[in-house]
Write a structure and sequence with these properties.
The complex is a heterodimer of chains A (256) and B (404).
Chain A lengths: L16 E10 L6 E11 L4 E5 L6 H8 L7 E6 L2 E2 L5 H11 E4 L11 H10 L5 H14 L15 H14 L4 E5 L7 H18 L2 E5 L3 H4 L4 E6 L2 E7 L10 H4 L3
Parallel strand pairs in A: 3-8, 3-9, 6-7, 7-8
Antiparallel strand pairs in A: 1-2, 1-4, 4-5, 9-10
Chain B lengths: L1 H15 L1 H39 L3 E6 L19 H8 L3 E16 L2 E10 L2 H5 L4 E4 L4 H6 L3 E4 L1 H8 L8 E4 L2 E9 L14 E5 H9 L6 E6 L5 H15 L10 E5 H44 L1 H9 L4 H38 L7 H27 L3 H6 L3
Helix pairs in contact in B: 1-11, 2-9, 2-11, 2-12, 9-12, 11-12
Classes of the chains: A alpha/beta (256), B alpha+beta (404).
The structure holds adenosine-5'-triphosphate (ATP) and magnesium ion.
Chain lengths: 256, 404
């Protein structure tokens, strides 16, 4: 899985992540919900993209398909040039293992499992030794400001702390792509800014690709590109010429 | 290495939910322990009975009226043996060491303040020799007792204990069904059998006394013959049959109205009975093992369904279906192995205690210990594995969204 761009299937070599007319329908018959209504999207290596839009507009769905956790109902999604529909479960697992880091909207921390062990989890499947895992996990927790709670259980952490554990877990394996679903949703603005600084630094210094869902314009400004969703379609895709320094007018932020 | 890690994860997982782990292992433990204890007890009891029979020696012949049956009532109105039959056998058949005529009767024995129901046997003096009874104190029954129908008796250890406790029984008087008898000898204990049969719960009186004062007729209900060591018991058996056919006027084409059994046949009969008994015990225990297995299955199903989200998360973080499978496989195995090992220990302890209680030998071998455990491990693995595989085949996002 290390061979870069080895997948010959696609003529979509440009772009790390590529959506072609991606449609996602949940359920069947009368209860079916069309979460994505045919979107085209191309994200190159090293980009920092914010996905915005009203609740239910399909942002999480997009992120899940990008992250090879789910496949489109129609259309194609490519990761590193590979059509995910043609890959088996194990191949998708290996893509996730080797390239991807997730921050889930609902955190998904393992209950009755310490913060440290939670953060170690992605490393387990990379075959990293216990001792090294420990060190890497501590470092990642320290990076999100969580030194000292390594041995706390998720049930003993505040919502914001749980969120930061989830972020540490996404970053610990030094993935080349980080997919974050509202990573600052539960944080006060000070903490949120810290996290955004971490993400922006990773993006700038190490060229890590970041795709982040956010509702907050203050956070979106850290991204260099902002994609706006509505009713399962992309309604706006614009470059943020001056990340973090540019404050967008309030009107853009609140779109019903 | 990976396996070792899976074992470590499995152990940690157990510690995270100790109550559930304990309950799962408890189910396995009880099942395994029950089977092991039952099988060991069954074997011990069999060995014990065989030992008791062997203690009587190989050269005994039991002669009974009627047709041979498996313990049920004998067919036809077979008449009992006559008083002289045993003497004639002793005189005419070569190679016999002792021939005893026996008539048994349940009796109620009363002594000032104590009473005890036991089986009294009226016997001729050869009975002690044939059945290998020894006298602990006092004297055996004699020819003289027999001729005069003396009111004397020998008491077995259990009977003595019940009637006399710590007192000395020799020379004391007892009432049997109204008749007064004097204790002249105390029998040496043979020990209770695992089946609950107690050979020491007995008393012996002269056959003539039995006839006159207890049963009120002259019937001899069986004859026991003991061959000299090294004599051919089948030849003796034939001689006895020929002799008795003649004495009892059985025509050449008629079936005999009596039968002779040697020890081999009796051992086979007893073997068949204890065999049925031990398989019955084992079957009951196997059901408990099955119930234990269903318990594991239940808990594994719950565990997997409850941990579907965990499976989803692990898949999302890069685990392959087979990584998840390995983990669940190992967890199920660790749980059921721990339960199985505990079951072996508890089963052995139980069997040890019970065999000591009943005074039977402890017969243990590898398969008895390992098969029940292997069975429960297989159940745990199969029923943990199947639902886990189901979950591992889900798309990760579906597993993550699973509501338990
Ligand atoms: N598993 C599912 N089954 C059925 N419908 C679903 C499922 N997941 C999402 N949906 C529906 O698909 C639509 C898009 O959902 P999605 O989670 O992508 O929205 P979102 O943009 O992330 O919203 P939010 O900002 O509230 O997180 C919604 O209408 C939602 O109800
Ligand atoms: Mg969402």
């Amino acid at each position: 899985m290390s061979a870069d761009g080895a997948g010959g299937a696609a003529a979509t070599g440009d772009g790390l992540i590529c959506f072609e007319q991606v449609t996602k329908v949940y359920g069947q018959g009368t209860g079916a919900v069309r979460a994505l209504a045919g979107i085209d999207l191309r994200i190159g290596a090293g980009e920092f993209v914010a996905l915005m839009g009203p609740s239910g507009s399909g942002k999480s769905t997009t992120l899940q398909i990008m992250g090879c956790l789910d496949v489109p109902t129609a259309g194609s999604s490519f990761f590193r040039g590979l059509d995910t529909a043609t890959l088996g479960g194990d191949d998708l697992s290996l893509l996730r293992r080797n390239y991807l880091g997730f921050v889930f909207q609902g955190f998904h921390l393992l209950a009755r499992t310490s913060a440290l062990e939670n953060v170690e989890l992605p490393l387990v499947y990379r075959g990293i030794s216990t001792g090294k895992r420990r060190i890497m996990a501590r470092t990642a927790l320290a990076a999100v400001g969580l030194s000292g709670v390594e041995h706390h259980l998720p049930s003993e952490l505040s919502g914001g702390e749980q969120q930061r554990v989830a972020i540490a877990r996404a970053l610990v394996s030094e993935p080349s792509v980080v997919l974050a679903d509202e990573p600052t949703g539960n944080l006060d603005s000070g903490r949120a800014t810290e996290i955004m600084e971490i993400l922006a630094t990773l993006n700038r210094q190490r060229g890590i690709t970041i795709v982040m869902v956010t509702h907050e314009p203050d956070m979106a400004v850290y991204a260099r590109r902002i994609v706006r969703f509505k009713d399962g379609l992309i309604v706006e895709d614009k470059t943020n010429e001056a990340p973090t320094s540019l404050r967008p007018p309030r009107a853009v932020a609140v779109s019903p | 290495m990976i396996l070792l890690q899976a074992v470590v994860i499995a152990l940690r997982q157990m510690l995270k939910n100790p109550l559930r782990a304990a309950l799962t292992t408890l189910g396995v433990m009880i099942g395994v322990a029950a089977v092991i204890a039952m099988v060991i007890l069954g074997r011990g009891a069999t060995a014990d009975i065989q030992g008791q029979l062997a203690g009587l020696g190989q050269n005994l012949l039991f002669i009974s009226p009627g047709q041979p049956g498996m313990g049920g009532p004998t067919r036809g109105a077979a008449h009992a043996f006559a008083d002289g039959d045993a003497d004639v056998i002793a005189k005419s058949v070569q190679g016999l060491r002792a021939v005893a005529a026996v008539t048994g009767s349940p009796v109620r024995v009363v002594r000032a303040g104590a009473s005890w129901s036991t089986a009294a046997v009226g016997v001729t003096e050869d009975y002690l020799v044939a059945m290998k009874w020894q006298i602990r104190s006092g004297r055996p029954l004699t020819d003289e007792d027999q001729r005069t129908g003396a009111a004397v008796c020998l008491v077995g250890e259990t009977t003595r204990q019940e009637l006399f406790g710590a007192e000395d029984a020799l020379g004391k008087e007892l009432r049997i069904n109204g008749a007064v008898v004097r204790v002249v000898g105390i029998l040496k204990a043979k020990g209770r059998a695992a089946t609950g049969m107690d050979p020491d719960d007995t008393m012996m009186v002269p056959l003539s006394f039995m006839h006159r004062r207890i049963v009120g007729n002259d019937d001899v209900s069986s004859i026991i013959a003991s061959a000299v060591d090294g004599e051919d018991t089948s030849r003796i058996q034939e001689d006895i049959i020929a002799l008795l056919r003649e004495r009892r006027h059985v025509g050449p084409d008629e079936d005999a109205d009596f039968f002779v059994r040697d020890m081999k046949e009796i051992e086979q009969m007893v073997g068949a009975i204890t065999g049925v008994l031990s398989s019955f015990l084992a079957a009951v225990a196997a059901i408990s093992l099955l119930v234990g297995g269903i318990g594991i299955m239940n808990i594994m199903l719950v565990a997997v369904s409850e941990r579907t989200r965990e499976i989803g998360l692990r898949l999302a973080l890069g685990a392959r279906a087979r990584d998840v499978m390995l983990q669940f496989l190992v967890e199920a195995m660790v749980l059921s192995t721990v339960g199985g090992l505990a079951g072996i220990v508890v089963g052995l302890l139980g069997a040890w205690g019970a065999t000591r209680q009943f005074g039977i030998p402890l017969v243990v071998d590898g398969p008895v210990l390992l098969l029940p455990m292997a069975f429960s491990v297989v159940i745990g693995v199969v029923f943990g594995f199947l639902p886990a595989r189901q979950a591992a085949r889900l798309r990760p996002i579906e597993a993550l969204r699973h509501e338990s």
